[in-house]
Amino acid sequence: MRVLMRADCNANIGQGHVMRLLSVADAFTAMGVLSAFVIAKDTSANRMKDRGYEVFTLSSSYTEMDSEVEELTGIIQSYGAELLLVDSYYVTKEYLNAVREKIFTGYLDDVYNFAYPVDLLINYNVYANAEKYKELYETEGVKLPPMIIGPSYAPLRAEFAGIPKREQNREVRKIALSFGGADPMRMAKKFVETLIEYEKLNSDNTGCNSHNKENAADTDKCITENCEIHMILGSMEPDLEALKEMELLYSWLKLHVNISNMKEVLQQMDLVVSAAGSTQYEICACQIPCICFSMADNQMPGGEEFGRLGIFHYAGDVRLNKSLYTDMIEEILKLKVDYERRVLMGEKEKELVDGNGAKRMAEQIFKLSGGGINE
Question: pTM for this structure?
Answer without folding.
Answer: 0.88
